[in-house]
Write a structure and sequence with these properties.
It is a single-pass type II membrane protein. One of its GO terms (biological process) is glycolipid biosynthetic process. InterPro entries: Gal-3-0_sulfotransfrase (IPR009729), P-loop_NTPase (IPR027417). Its main location: Golgi. GO terms for molecular function: galactosylceramide sulfotransferase activity. The longest helix has 22 residues, at 251-272. The chain contains 14 helices and four strands. Helix 1 (15-28) links the parallel strand 1 (5-8) and strand 2 (67-68). 36% of the residues are buried. The protein has one domain (5-94, 156-334). By secondary structure, it is mainly alpha-helical. A four-stranded parallel sheet has the order 2-1-3-4, sandwiched between helices.
Amino acid sequence: PKTDIVFLKVHKSASSTVMNILFRFGETHNLTFAFPMGGGNQLFYPRHFLARFVQGFSPRRPQHFNILCHHMRFLQPEVQKVVSRSAVYFSILRNPVQLMESSFVYYKGASAFSRAHSLEEFLSHPYLYYNPANKDSHYARNLMTFDFGFNPNGEVSAKRVQLMLEAIEASFDLLLISEYFDESMVLLKEMLCWDLDSVVSFPLNSRDSSTKSPLPDTIVEKIKNWNRLDWEIYTHFNRTFWERIDRDIGRERMQQEVKALRQRQAELARTCLQGTGSVAPKDIKDSSLRPLQHGSAKILGYNLKQGLDKETERMCRRLVTPELQYSSALYKKQFPQKHP
């Protein structure tokens, strides 16, 4: 199994669920994480990543960490200072239309969104609300482009798009697609030589469907145009994702693998969860399992079954522990003398 990993955690793209997978694997195999200084949740995002943002990094005695997975704005030369040369790099992408809709709800407090009453209103006159100079403006336009380290307000020329795609291809071994999460996990499992249980997960940090509504076609087109760079990244890597499946696995075997993954997930849900799925924040009985609530989104969580034996309880708890709580528990374990 590969144990040196860089995951670029792109916002609002099922990346908290992927992070939980990395946390569990790292904890089980006693790996070290590149934590933000002081145990925060972001590596001084939205600034470009620097090696010195990592707790315990020293240029005089460069130490390599196994897993780098907290939110950062990608800058490869700096990332290479904290991980081994053989590290596997991967990230996850989401359709920019759903990504924008999700960001609008989740980052409603951001300067670009706070005055717009609806996404529609924002998109009809974006420059009334959007100022690229504001330090939180990245949430409102080409968020994936920004997270990969590029300028979200750059011109959309064929040449520039080409260079951006080539740069991403040169840096990353695999780009997952959040709309095909299970297929993504199969590809990830193959690339990392992990077993099935290592990539099984329950969706984390997802929001209640009561705040979601289908978008009219006119809005969809406006979102694509406004986030043209993200759209170019997404469509390119969605295509290469399926090319890779055809080349490395084949559709038939992929179907079998996905089926096995879903069966295992259902089995774990029956073992671990009260009911079979996620519940509203107010219904989560154990406050240590309550995810952070943000913007006007309702972030769902889980209730564990009572009376599980110790070993099962521990496994189940790891599966449903929200990102912030899990991150801070692992930080305390890795740096027992420092408390975030």
